[in-house]
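Hey, sorry to bother you again with one of my protein questions. A protein chain has come my way and I'm curious about its shape. I'm sending you its amino acid sequence along with the backbone structure tokens. I owe you a coffee for this, so here goes:
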Amino acid sequence: AGTTTYGSRNGWYTRVGNQITVQIVLNVTSMTGTGNIKIGALPFTIKSGTQGTGSVMTDSLDWASGTSIVAYLPGGNAYMNLFTSGDNISWAAVPVDSAWEAVITATYFV
């Protein structure tokens, strides 16, 4: 575990029936520890047996060259992870990075 310090962090959501769309804007000024990036405090728990995904735009976040970054929301939880994805390679979780910014929009079901 580590500590994260934010310059700012904001989030909004829209619920239509059992579908949730979130937008999160993060300015991380310091992140310590090891492991992978996990973004918590989603407004509702993701329905078990389902998965959500989303788009991510970043600034100064380091991830594997030649890949894209996506938000992954595992069912039965109220958090998301950031993963890389690419042609003919396995998904890989994005590790903790010292300072970065992101705008994330993701959809999931409850």
About this structure: The CA atoms of residues 13 and 22 lie 4 Å apart.
